[in-house]
Structure formats: structure tokens, C-alpha cells
Amino acid sequence: MSFYRSSAAQSPLRYDTVPALELSRVSHQFGKFEALSDISLRVEAGERVALVGSSGAGKSTLLRLMNGTLMPASGEIWVLGQRLDRLSHKRLRGVQQQMGTIYQQFHLINSLRVVHNVNAGHLGRWPFWKAAASLLYPLDVKIAARALEQVGIPEKLFARTDQLSGGEQQRVALARVLVQNPALILADEPIASLDPELSRSMMNLLRDLTTELGKTLIVSLHSVEFARSHCDRLIGLRQGQILFDAPATQVSDDMLEALYQRDVPARSQS
Fold first, then answer.
1. Residue 121: which residues within 8 A CB-CB, separation 6 or more?
2. What percent of the chain has pLDDT above 90?
3. pTM listed for this prediction
4. What would the DSSP string read from start to end of 102-150?
5. Do residues 27 and 38 lie in contact, with contact meaning Cβ atoms separated by under 8 Å?
């Protein structure tokens, strides 16, 4: 299996020579609520890392900080060698083009055909006129078709997105990220709305494609089973702090029991 790599999408930076992501003493609040406190971690290029923990532990907030849609109240976040809070808007957008995010809610436009939603992966590097023209007549159809073939639904290229099942829509969201061709993929509960069989299929796709294409994957998961079987490393978050950060093979049942103990009320932010 191979995938198109657009020369226009490549940056002069050698992303394999710097950590994919590094956080140093990062904290973040929503009003008086402290969602994350004193988070430090480092992810190397090509790693597959799972964020695990109860709802409200801070996983989604951490991913939003990683992709630059939130900025920390304190601490430093470095992505692909760039400190996010010191970048101009233009340079931040350039770094964000090298990060692809898969959301639990898919973030697809249901009234459009699948090819248009997949082509949204180009938007960060297409000029406005090309993006607008593609809504009338889809461009780079072969690239979109190749991405859909990789995720197993090539026959859905011209289907209306709202006619797809939830599992198929999640595959469209993954195909969009493949077209974007980022160095770093962030996935926020990508299997939360899928049944067990589709969940395993989606996690297999994420593991196999990121491995083959040399991408870094950071994924938040409620399922510890999939985190252990599909990721190299687990980071356990509890009440906005890192309880453990260890290779998947070294995460014990006792560590997980401590992570998910129920003697502390659930937090309001995820």
C-alpha cells in the first residue's frame, strides 16, 4: 500500500530530526476550573501514543493544546520543533497544516458528496479560488479516490455523506487526514460511536497506516484494550495530571485500577 505525497505539503524542516511534540509544565484553566496541571511529556517522531483516563480527566483539552486550538495558561508547547505560543498566525497555520485531527464528531459536511469532504484535507494549502472551484467541480479526484481505497470504501467517492453509516463517515474523516498528509495525527476518541467490530477495524487502520506512512499518532481512548494492543505507549491522565507514562507492555492492572478508581467526582471538562 502506498500513498501520494504532495511536494507542496512538505516543509523544509526535517520533522524526523526533532521531537514530534514536547510539553513542558503546561497548565490550562477554564475560568476557575483547572483542566490540566503541570503536564510535561515528549513524543518522538513515529511513536503511537494513547491518552487514557476517565471522562473529564483532561484528554480532549490536552489534544486541543497540542493542535494549537487552545493556548496554555502556563508552560511551553513545542510541535515539530516550533513553540506554538511564539508563532505568528501565519506560521501557526503552517505548523497546523502538519497536524491532522480526527474528531469524535467527524466534522464532515453531510450535504456534500464524499469527494468534497475528503478534499477538505487540501484546504490548508489550496488557494481560495481552487477551494471554491472544487465545490462546483471536484479537483484532484484521483488523490481522493486513493485515500478512500486505503480506508476501504473506494466505492463511496461520489456518495452523499449523509447516506453513509457512522463507521463509513469515520473512514471519510481518516481519508481527509491522509489527503492532508500531516506529520502528526491527533485522534480524539475516534471509535467512541462505533460498535466493537468497527472499532477494531478503525484502530487497525490507524495503526497500519501511521506505521506504513511513518506518521506520529496520539489518540485518546476510553478502551484500554485497544490502547494496549494498538499503541506503543500509554499516558494515564487523572484529574488533569499525568498519573503514569509507560510503554504499553509495562502498564499493569494495578496502574489502571488506580487510574480509574471512582472515589473522586468526575470533572466537567474532557
1. 100, 147, 175, 176, 177, 178, 179, 180, 181
2. 65
3. 0.84
4. E-TT----TTSBHHHHHHGGGTTTS-HHHHHHHHHS---HHHHHHHHHH
5. yes
